[in-house]
Amino acid sequence: MATQPGPKTRNPQDGRERLIESARAIFRSKVRREVSRLDIARHAGVAPGLVTYHFNSNAQLVLAVTRPVLGQAIAELFAALDAPLTVEERLNISAILFIDFAQLNGALLDLFVEAVTETGDEEGQALIHACIERLEQFFAEMVAARFVSADIDPVLLLMAMWGMCRLVGETPPLPLKNVRPNAGIEERTVAEARFITKLILQGVKPKAA
């Protein structure tokens, strides 16, 4: 007599991935202080104990949620910085990427940095250092091309650029004169990025010889 197949066992990894996807969606849409493990479990449709089973600490959960997002964003940024374009074009594309990232993932970046600081996560630290180092190299190219004064600290310039892009990404659109009132998000982002690029280049332009 042929035996009947037993019930299919659920892959524990499936539950882990659902938790990560649910936590990512919640972190993007809510103030982090409002997020609990129970919220994440309910959103994922799993037992609350499964959160603790897969993640011993909140920091581990945060890293699992945020690290892939940061890794992909940094890869896209590196591709833009390495593209065969002019310095100004690459700066403009970087500003677009920064604004897009801030709109969707600004909160995830804050959580990521906090978790890396708390845990000393080596992979996370490597991502941060690689990103800063590559951007410093890019701004050094800007100095060499005389787009930027040699007196400007590349890290400070990076912080200023990210701060402006994040502000634009997380607040209502800038009232730019050259943007149509009914322009879509993509068109506005491009215009805002150009505005920030010009602002940076005018503000840190080297003195005439």
Name the CATH superfamily assignment of the largest domain: Tetracycline Repressor, domain 2
DSSP helical segment count:
8
CATH architecture of the largest domain: Orthogonal Bundle
Radius of gyration: 22 Å
CATH topology of the largest domain: Tetracycline Repressor, domain 2
Give the count of structural domains. 2
Number of strands: 0
Estimate what percentage of residues fall within beta strands. Answer: under 5%
C-alpha geometry: globular
First and last CA, distance: 94 Å
Which regions are unreliable across 5 or more consecutive residues at pLDDT < 50? Answer: 1-9
The chain-level mean pLDDT equals: 82
What is the string of SSEs from the N terminus onward?
Answer: HHHHHHHH
User: Would you state the CATH class of the largest domain?
Assistant: Mainly Alpha
